[in-house]
Inverse folding.
């Protein structure tokens, strides 16, 4: 079929899709596509977004297919390809439009196009939801360590409050929990703009709750509502609640009650809740049973540290974003030296690229070695390594750790060894309990005890620091 004919069909299909796809999604993904041909019952489209192929296939294929059927009168195959040249042209055109826009008199700039209006709405919703623009599914690299958590998060994003509710994601620091949680928020705002999404750090929730019950704060400036009503409004009048780092609640009994009521209310109204934590619900001491049961009612999943391939993939993804071409050895070197925390892995990458930028130099292996100055490849630290170094430090033995000896010297050293095992190895309390030949609850007790004492005992803080440096040195 001649291309003009194909273009004509596409513009009719677009008009159809304009009715069925949310405005901002339509203008971003659909309106920017071009018809490339219609042969042998296959309609070819070109997208100008590198991620377009995946996003369109996953989210809009069914709607597109339906629209084609309506216009042409039969089912067609749709192929979508990304075209670099067209993408460049599109970027240039956007830039030209922006220049024209900048030259317009102020009165004209205010003029609203459906696209600008949609973008503005989206920005407003994102700021209401409190989300970081970087934390989207598109930027999340899925590895074996996060495959299940990612699949569940994606499913919740597509069908909020339908299947997995609450979704509870746990794992060590810097492994992508916040990223994944916020990705759910972005996805919902983008594809389901009527739903109200709210992301909140548990610390912020606690502060809001304390303010809401503070009699000195009866009126809060702008609003005429009581602080209590304001609090409720903020956390109950929403469709999706994303609550980050719930372990922060720990022993805050009153706030736990408030959380329970918030969750209860939302779940009764069939609203979606997503929670993250650095450990399992049952490992948060003092968490009341009824709250724990609520968490466990939905689905609980973990994220573990990424393996080597995933670390390299994460680095490559970062490199792609800034169009950096570097030798594999560069990625390999960084991936080998930052093994257990994606935040640190990313930090190392950013440091390298920032220095390269300042020094206006290529990112070579030699340069990376100089900047990061990692003497040798870090070894993975096991529970046994931690126990051995801690035992030596305090002048006791691993056998004593594993025995039922309870002298002060052994107990104290054991508490520290347990604490550091958890902090450094990212192993579960079950694994740690197995090594120390103790009950899981005993491990938790040790961990919490040291964590609390570190805040006040200078001497202990110094020992922990020294053991850490022995381990990492
Ligand atoms: P957590 O909440 O588990 O402490 P974050 O979600 O804050 O961790 O992640 C730390 C950093 O690492 C963020 O900048 C995040 O974008 C990045 N990150 C983590 N996991 C991934 C991943 N799988 N793909 C891409 N970036 C990731
Ligand atoms: Mg986080």
């Amino acid at each position: 079929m001649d291309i003009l004919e194909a273009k004509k069909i596409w513009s009719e299909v677009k008009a159809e899709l304009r009715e069925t796809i949310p405005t901002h999604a339509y203008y971003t993904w659909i309106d920017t596509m071009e018809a490339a041909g219609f042969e042998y019952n296959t309609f070819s489209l070109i997208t100008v977004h590198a991620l377009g192929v995946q996003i369109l296939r996953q989210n809009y294929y069914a709607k597109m297919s339906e629209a084609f059927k309506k216009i042409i009168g039969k089912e067609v195959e749709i192929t979508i390809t990304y075209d670099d040249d067209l993408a460049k042209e599109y970027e240039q055109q956007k830039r030209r439009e922006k220049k024209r826009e900048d030259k317009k008199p102020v009165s004209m700039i205010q003029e609203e196009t459906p696209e600008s209006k949609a973008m503005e709405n989206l920005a407003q919703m994102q700021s209401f939801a409190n989300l970081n623009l970087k934390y989207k599914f598109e930027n999340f690299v899925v590895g074996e360590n996060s495959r299940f958590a990612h699949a569940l998060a994606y499913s919740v994003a597509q069908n909020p409050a339908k299947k997995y509710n609450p979704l509870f994601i746990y794992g060590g620091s810097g492994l992508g929990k916040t990223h994944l949680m916020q990705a759910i928020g972005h996805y919902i705002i983008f594809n389901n703009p009527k739903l109200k999404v709210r992301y909140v750090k548990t610390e912020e929730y606690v502060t809001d709750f304390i303010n809401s019950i503070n009699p000195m704060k009866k009126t809060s400036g702008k609003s005429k509502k009581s602080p209590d009503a304001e609090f409720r409004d903020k956390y109950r009048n929403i469709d999706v609640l994303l609550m980050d780092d719930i372990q922060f609640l720990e022993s805050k009994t009153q706030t736990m009650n408030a959380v329970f009521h918030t969750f209860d209310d939302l779940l009764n109204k069939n609203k979606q809740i997503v929670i993250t934590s650095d450990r399992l619900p049952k490992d948060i001491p003092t968490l009341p049973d009824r709250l724990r049961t609520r968490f466990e009612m939905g689905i609980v999943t973990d994220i573990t540290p990424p393996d080597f391939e995933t670390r390299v993939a994460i680095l490559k993804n970062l490199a792609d974003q800034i169009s950096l071409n570097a030798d594999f050895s560069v990625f390999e070197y960084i991936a080998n030296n930052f093994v257990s925390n994606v935040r640190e892995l990313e930090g190392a990458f950013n440091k390298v690229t920032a220095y390269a930028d300042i020094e206006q130099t290529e990112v070579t292996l030699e340069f990376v070695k100089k900047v990061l100055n990692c003497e040798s490849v870090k070894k993975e630290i096991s529970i046994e390594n931690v126990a051995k170094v801690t035992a030596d430090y305090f002048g006791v033995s691993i056998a004593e750790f594993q025995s039922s000896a309870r002298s002060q010297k052994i107990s104290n050293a054991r508490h520290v060894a347990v604490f550091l095992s958890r902090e450094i190895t990212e192993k579960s309390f079950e694994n740690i309990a197995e090594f120390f030949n103790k009950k899981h609850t005993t491990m938790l007790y040790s961990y919490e005890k040291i964590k609390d004492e570190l805040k006040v005992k200078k001497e202990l803080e110094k020992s922990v620091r020294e053991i850490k440096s022995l381990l990492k040195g």
Q: What stands out?
A: DSSP finds 22 helices and eight strands in the chain. The pocket of adenosine-5'-diphosphate (ligand 1) is lined by residues 135, 139-141, 146, 171, 173-179, 314, 342-343, 346 (CB under 6 Å). The longest strand covers residues 34-39.
